Amino acid sequence: MRKMIARAPWSLLLAAAAVEIAVAQAPPRQAPTPAVLQNYPAVTEAQLTGDLARQLSDGVAQAAKSPFRTGASVTDFDVASHSFGFVATALLYAS
To answer: Is residue 95 helix, strand or coil?
Structure first.
């Protein structure tokens, strides 16, 4: 994934820098209470990282077909924010 980020166009790198700044400046979130958590099935770290890897792999495949080399489909609604989210996910996954 780091190789993909290293070859990204400058606009994606600029977006990635904006994400890093936003994440660094965001206030810490309060953890949900156990009562809230009991409504959700347990997810292992392996399941979570595996699903993130799948989503990023799908985005890489989409970017290979896209004339703009974006991980989000340019025909879908709100492609700009989806592309920004793809960059953010790739950076968080790489860390």
So the answer is: coil
- Cβ-based neighbour number of residue 3 at 10 Å: 7
Question: What's the DSSP call for residue 7?
Answer: T
Q: Model confidence over 26-78: pLDDT tens digits?
A: 677 777 777 777 777 888 889 988 998 998 998 888 888 888 888 888 787 78
HEC-encoded secondary structure of 23-87: HHHCCCCCCCCHHHHCCCCCCCHHHHHHHHHHHHHHHHHHHHHCCCCCCCCCCCCCHHHHHHHHH
Give the structural domain span for 52: 2-23+44-94
- 58-65 LR contacts (CB < 8 Å, sep 24+): 59/86, 59/90, 60/4
Domain count for the chain, please give it. Answer: 1
What pTM does this model have? 0.56
Which tokens is 14 given? 């600029």
Whether residue 77 is contained in a domain is answered as yes
